[in-house]
Design a protein that fits this description.
This protein is an alpha/beta fold. It folds into two domains: 106 residues, HAD superfamily/HAD-like (Rossmann fold, 3-Layer(aba) Sandwich); 87 residues, Haloacid dehalogenase-like hydrolase (DNA polymerase, domain 1, Orthogonal Bundle). Helices cover 46% and strands 14% of the residues. The chain is built from nine helices and seven strands. Strands 5-4-1-6-7 form a five-stranded parallel β-sheet, sandwiched between helices. Helix 9 links the parallel strand 6 and strand 7.
Length: 214
Amino acid sequence: MTARPSPPAGLLLDAMGTLIGLKDSVGTTYAALAQRHGLTVEPAAIDRVFGSIYGQAPPLAFPGLEGPALKGAEINWWGERINETLLQAGAGPAPEALRIELFERFACTDLWRVFADVPSQLEAWKARGLKLAVVSNFDQRLHDLLEGLGLNLWLDAVVISSQAGAAKPNPKPLQLALQALEMEAHQVWHVGDSAADEQAAQAAGITCVLVKRP
């Protein structure tokens, strides 16, 4: 019989798919902006290939970079995914202007939604005295998204893979969040939605709870 873990004093929360998600599919936004750059492609064609391309990409993490160099690396990383997606969807290569425009578009809060159960949960957890940190395989745009979506009010720390220099399932982002919260692994749970979340938590010695959203 497996012993139940002790109640946590802190939570390390994944972002995409756990706290927030896109209002429309990736393909919807890609296709609309691609058309403005002379490329015609169906949203469904993009959606069919994007998940695989994203899943096979190298980590969104850039050890030792900061400032303009880090932002440039983030734009280039996403630019490569955008270009490959449009090529595989049959639209042809993505011009640089489209890559940059799509990168900037996904920094806008109107594309994103906070899942309905999230605000009340964050408020309840803070009322119980839990420390909360977001740990995400994303880039610097997440800081402004969390602020614009009103979630940063409940957060004590935000760790993103591009700045951390490593991405889940590497445990380093979770370990950096522990340092930021001044807590030990046994004091927190990690809440996520993917195998990478589960693997990173296991490697860090942290209890993991997976959220299964539709």
